[in-house]
Amino acid sequence: TGMGEEVVQQARKIITETEDLLHFAQSQGKTMEGPLRLGCIPTIAPFLLGDLSKFVHQHHPQLHLNIREDTTANLLQLLRNGELDVLILALPMDIQGNQSYLLGRDPFKLVMHKSLADNLPEPVAYDQLPDESIFLLETEHCLTGHAVAACELADSSKINPFTATSLHSLVQMADAGLGATFIPQMAIDRGILNG
Prior knowledge:
There is one protein chain. The protein is an alpha/beta fold and 195 residues long. The protein is built from 7 helices and 7 strands; from the N terminus they run H-E-H-E-H-E-E-H-E-H-E-H-E-H. It has helices at 2-26, 45-59, 72-80, 114-117, 142-150, 167-175, 185-189; strands at residues 34-40, 63-69, 86-88, 108-112, 134-137, 159-164, 180-184. The strands form 3 sheets. Strands 2-1-3 form a 3-stranded parallel beta sheet, sandwiched between helices. A two-stranded antiparallel ribbon has the order 4-7.
């Protein structure tokens, strides 16, 4: 019922605030100490969390990261439920009334095999790509929505029906010369295209 949903929302709020108070008391008001439940999307996690964990361990040894990698929708639900404290997401995104802070910008690049690139004029016009030549992640991944919006991929005939769950799968499809995909710069910087 509507009343039941309101009770659940209020109870979650009380539980979250109680946990926050408990953590504050346990750390005696010290910052960067105690548990921090962090959620991160899978298109960012493999390229960011190793360095982040190492930094936290070296500079804030009393801060204990508990990390969860999942899709944006699942992470937002866990945040709403009070099961996570903070999320690392790709914006723009409907964050459902939560607060957000911009930590950085990471452009994504069009990636394709040289054999396909050699046959296209520069700059690349997406409407000149062959039909079904753009490989994307499953729709649950925000990178797909960002790529479609940013590149104005209104012509769905350009999008291949194959959907991947990882950036590595997209790179393999592009490397096979079957089409193109979009990869975040941080993944390229971390060597996803090596080899």
